[in-house]
Description:
Strand order of the largest sheet: 1-2-3
Helix content: 25-40%
Largest sheet: 3 strands, antiparallel
Low-confidence stretches: none
Radius of gyration: 20 Å
Shape: flat
Distance between the termini: 41 Å
Strand content: 15-25%
Number of strands: 3
Amino acid sequence: xxxxxxxxxxxxxxxxxxxxxxKNLWLTYRCNVINPELYAYGDTDGNVxxxxxxxxxxxxxxxxxxxxxxxxxxxIVSLSTTESEYIAATHIMKEVLWL
Length: 99
């Protein structure tokens, strides 16, 4: 931070070029207030980790735009892939109910 080299200045220049090239872009969501579309997708990789904790993730979409997503290692050691899928589905439903 006190004496940045040439590579840092080049990285900053790339960042500003990117920002100036995308300043007219924005995220848009379709507005369907009467009948909103809510979709939730999730998956689990099973018990392939060394510590037998499965990895699971989900994404929740509202009217075509992602409003919530997560991926993390499950806290519970499951005895089967099916149990891992049930745990992931429970976390997805908790998120959907919260939204």
